[in-house]
Design a protein that fits this description.
Helix content: 25-40%
CATH architecture: Orthogonal Bundle
Order of helices and strands: EEEHHEEHHEEEEH
Strand content: 25-35%
Number of helices: 5
Shape: globular
Distance between the termini: 29 Å
Number of strands: 9
Strand order of the largest sheet: 1-2-3-5-4
Largest sheet: 5 strands, antiparallel
CATH class: Mainly Alpha
CATH topology: Transferase(Phosphotransferase), domain 1
Structural class: alpha+beta
Radius of gyration: 17 Å
Length: 177
């Protein structure tokens, strides 16, 4: 993490905190997701973290948040990602109805991102306004692929399935949030 100057906390969840940071070499703003290894190991979620890394590395699309690099030390895993200045769609909707043109633009960008993900065998499985980030310029970015599934997770019935542990963790996460 010596290449990055960590700034203010942008958000947090049960297992991670996301900070605004600056690349000291390029001066580029980035978001750094700091994941507590001990909590992940205790909850049995290491495979989920590995899947999130592989999925985000696979997806390079204008409406999907980019993963630049992953680092780790004994206590934490660090995802260095594209910083989307502007906030969550949730915050925009909470202030009142979107104008029709803006809503249409966001919807078209969301459909483009989802179509791209599906064409690569990735299902996000947690699309919600909190995981849709909006640049100040008005462009939408899909984020948080922690619950995503890849086509290899499909069973013969054609559906994506969660392991019992993944289901328990998702239920706990939704009840606490």
């Amino acid at each position: 993490m010596q290449r990055y100057q960590i700034g203010k906390l942008l958000g947090h969840g049960m297992f991670a905190k996301v900070y605004h940071a600056r690349n000291l070499e390029t001066n580029q703003s980035v978001a750094v997701k700091v994941i507590d290894k001990a909590k992940i190991m205790e909850a049995g979620l290491m495979n989920q973290i590995k899947r999130e890394i592989s999925v985000m590395s696979l997806l390079k699309h204008p409406n999907v948040v980019r993963l630049y690099e992953v680092m780790a030390n004994k206590t934490n895993i660090y995802f260095v990602m594209e910083y989307v200045k502007g906030g969550e769609l949730f915050d925009k909707v909470a202030k009142g109805r979107l104008k029709e043109d803006a809503a249409r633009k966001y919807f078209q960008q969301l459909i483009s991102a989802v179509d791209f993900c599906h064409s690569r065998g990735v299902c996000h499985r947690d699309l919600k306004p909190e995981n849709l980030l909006i640049y100040e310029s008005g462009n939408l970015k899909v984020s948080d692929f922690g619950l995503s599934a890849v086509s290899e997770s499909r069973w013969q019935d054609g559906l994506l399935h969660l392991t019992k542990k993944e289901l328990e963790n998702r239920l706990i996460r939704n009840c606490i949030a």
